[in-house]
Design brief:
Blueprint: H1 2-56, E1 61-65, H2 75-86, E2 93-98, E3 111-115, H3 120-128, H4 138-142, E4 151-154, H5 158-171, E5 177-181, E6 184-188, E7 196-198, H6 201-216
Antiparallel strand pairs: 1-3, 1-4, 2-3, 5-6, 6-7
Length: 217
């Protein structure tokens, strides 16, 4: 009985020691998990900041879509001709450049136009006057054979473009207004409501949840 009692005490001590080790390991794992969550959030915040900086660097740009690409073209001459048709000033255009030709379709690559940073108003006038493009086609600019519709948009990063596409697809049935302004994706449910800025996929998911919750109630 004394031997059994002694062994029992040893087992009990070992059990208590094991519980302490398990508890310590659980705390270590929890701390590691918390650190991973923190690092993941910090990384996401850093990525968002980089996206914002990249988009902000394009704030003086516009993108012109639909103009036929001809051999030996001069983008600045194209912009000057388009500016005349739109009755807007092109003197403060700093540079204009055709993007690399797209390989996925037959559409011409867009032309990016950058205005001098001291003349942002001219860039905004171009965006406002794009409504005059309704009856202007590519052949009137280039003299080429393609009669493409021409569009003027803000110059968006790949991240912003994809987020805008997802926002339109997921919110178009629930929100009356979805638009882009100075690189910011804004949505408004109906007239008189405040607009909401969609910065990330998380913002989009959160807005969808709120919208579904309101609908279910």
């Amino acid at each position: 009985m004394g031997l059994l009692s002694e062994k029992y005490d040893v087992l009990l001590a070992e059990h208590e020691e094991s519980k302490k080790k398990i508890s310590h390991l659980e705390k270590s794992i929890q701390n590691a998990n918390n650190k991973c969550v923190y690092l993941e959030k910090a990384n996401m915040a850093l990525e968002q900041k980089l996206h914002d900086i990249e988009q902000s660097s394009r704030k003086q740009n516009i993108e012109i879509i639909g103009i036929e690409q001809l051999p030996e073209e001069n983008p600045m001459q194209i912009i000057n001709k388009l500016g005349q048709l739109l009755e807007v000033n092109s003197e403060n255009v700093e540079w204009a450049s055709r993007h690399q030709q797209r390989k996925t379709n037959d559409k011409p690559a867009p032309i990016v136009v950058s205005f001098k940073s001291t003349n942002m108003e001219d860039r905004n006038v171009w965006l406002t006057n794009r409504l005059k493009l309704k009856n202007i086609y590519s052949d009137a600019i280039t003299g080429g054979s393609q009669k493409n519709k021409i569009y003027i948009n803000e110059d968006l990063t790949k991240h912003t473009r994809e987020l805008l596409w997802n926002t339109k697809n997921q919110l178009k049935e629930k929100f009356k207004y979805i638009w882009i302004h100075n690189g910011k994706i804004l949505v408004k449910k109906s007239d008189g409501d405040n607009s909401t800025w969609i910065k990330s996929e998380d913002d989009l998911r959160e807005l969808l949840k709120k919208s579904q919750h309101v609908t279910s109630n």
